[in-house]
Amino acid sequence: MQERIRVVLMETSHPGNIGAVARAMKNMDVSELVLVRPDSFPDPVADARSSGALDILASARVVEKFEDAVADCSLIVGTSARGRSFPWPVLNPRDCALKVLDSAAADNNVALVFGREDRGLSNEELQRCHYHVHIPANPDYSSLNLAMAVQVILYEIRMNSLLRLENSDASAYISPVTGPDNSAWDDAPATFDEVEGYFQHLEKTLVAIGFHDPEKPRQLMARLRRIYQRCHLDKTEVNILRGILKATNRMISNQRNQH
Amino acid sequence: MQERIRVVLMETSHPGNIGAVARAMKNMDVSELVLVRPDSFPDPVADARSSGALDILASARVVEKFEDAVADCSLIVGTSARGRSFPWPVLNPRDCALKVLDSAAADNNVALVFGREDRGLSNEELQRCHYHVHIPANPDYSSLNLAMAVQVILYEIRMNSLLRLENSDASAYISPVTGPDNSAWDDAPATFDEVEGYFQHLEKTLVAIGFHDPEKPRQLMARLRRIYQRCHLDKTEVNILRGILKATNRMISNQRNQH
What stretches pass through the bilayer (chains A, B) (predicted)? Predict the structure, then answer.
């Protein structure tokens, strides 16, 4: 799917930005770069700033006109600052990602067009796009660095593409790992019996050290249960916590026996 | 809400990256920057790369230690590459944004901690975080530029905050109450300092009961940190857990004194 997605940079002034864009593209696994009339390319500054994404730069095409860059594309999205006088369909980066993925999944070529560092895309260029995409920046300071804008737009595409994979394959790639109820954890979750055994052991120990009076329970055990249930203990963790209780009890009875 | 969110950069080598981070922050309307032992700051290279986000740089705090940067925070999220051998709760940037917004909306300070350019955060630093956030990059080329990573994480926070404003009725329904980083909880989350005080008290007590040998630590403290960071303790809970440690220590010394 990613191979249907193309990044187009219009008349980029700074070769360093081209390199930073190449790095951002490779990070997000998008490889087709088209440069319309760059000031300087190839350029060693671009190579240096690409941090090793030289394959993207080596295969980049340089063309003369906007039209040459997007001729075979059936979805063209241009980046735009908010508030153009002539309104056009505007997407936020997330909705843009959904449109792009739908189109690429149907085997269409998609172009994401980014404007000049100082003045973006011209009205003529913007009117050749199907959609404009606007990154919802601070209205008082809204101009992102070119490569940052590419990073954000491509991140949303990658993120949504992975979320779609997850929903179709039930792949765990993207699911947040928050504890042992996830396959990426390093140990199996403890069973009910194991955790319950710990709570009983804990309560007895708290009585032994004089911290807990079952006649005046307050909410102590409820609060402790809420801590440990919330983090969903794994088997090793239950063993460690019970080990601490055993050591505490051994310490108490050893001292009793010694004297 | 944004004023509760802090960006922390650990031992940044290149002042240009600090400037680029300041620009990305200002673009996303987040202003609090804390630098832990930067190689060079202030620095004219940082100023130049900030493209006018000089106010962020001027108000940035420089501190000596991770702890100093996050002491008053009750949610700490560290960026991490995938595949650490010791799994920790990991979020993708979108789920990270939801957690951060919940916590900031309940008036808690939140730290987003970014590691060194070449080797990220240390294991010790990562184990002081509640969550790790992982940007789902191309596994064959996964290292984002530092400022790019800040841009993506802050973009998700801003995007989700704007989406919540749009659906302000739906937002309360969407966030599950999973712990004290949510306004529906019955107590405020403990700060970094409070939790750290507990861990130190816990470690001393484990030595006193003969369960822990700091010379042969295995992964004991890391595993215990993972339990308690995962459930995100509230203030009352820290008091209860420290109460148990005090009672344990009192029991040991009372018995020693009696005989």
Answer: none
Tokens of B38: 């930067």
Residue B206 has pLDDT above 50, yes or no: yes
Statement: residue A170 has pLDDT above 60 = no
pLDDT for residue B227:
94
Indicate whether B170 pLDDT > 60: no
| Residue of chain B whose alpha carbon sits nearest to that of A25 | B138
Q: Which CATH number fits domain A2-169: 2.40.100.10, 3.40.1280.10, 3.40.720.10, 3.30.450.20?
A: 3.40.1280.10
Report the alpha-carbon distance of residue A68 to residue A111 in Å, rounded. 12
Reported ipTM: the value is: 0.86
Chain A residues within 8 A of B232 when measuring between CB atoms:
230
Domain B2-174 architecture: 3-Layer(aba) Sandwich (3.40)
Structure tokens at A45: 């500054």
Q: What are the chain A neighbours of B138 within 8 Å (beta carbons)?
A: 26-29
Contact B152 A152 (CB under 8 A): yes
Which residue type is seen at A17? N
pLDDT at position A174 is 57
Please tell me the distance in Å from B4's CA to the nearest CA on chain A.
17
Neighbours of A175 (CB within 10 A): 17
Residues found in chain A:
259
Q: Is the pLDDT of residue A233 over 50?
A: yes
Q: Do A223 and B236 touch (CB under 8 A)?
A: yes
Nearest 5°: CA angle at A204, between A199 and A206?
A: 90
B147 burial via Cβ count (<10 Å: 0-12, 13-18, 19+): buried
Strands B75-79 and B131-133: parallel
What percentage of chain A has pLDDT greater than the value 70?
93
What percentage of chain A has pLDDT greater than the value 90? 71
CA distance, residue A8 to nearest chain B CA (Å): 19
CATH topology of domain B192-258: Helicase, Ruva Protein; domain 3 (1.10.8)
Residue ranges of domains in chain B:
2-174, 192-258
Residues B65, A20: Cα–Cα separation, whole Å: 31
Q: What is the pLDDT of residue B238?
A: 97
CA distance A115 to A78: 8
Cα dihedral A100→A55→B143→A110 (10° resolution): 0
Asked if residues B65 and B119 have their Cβ atoms less than 8 Å apart, the reply is no
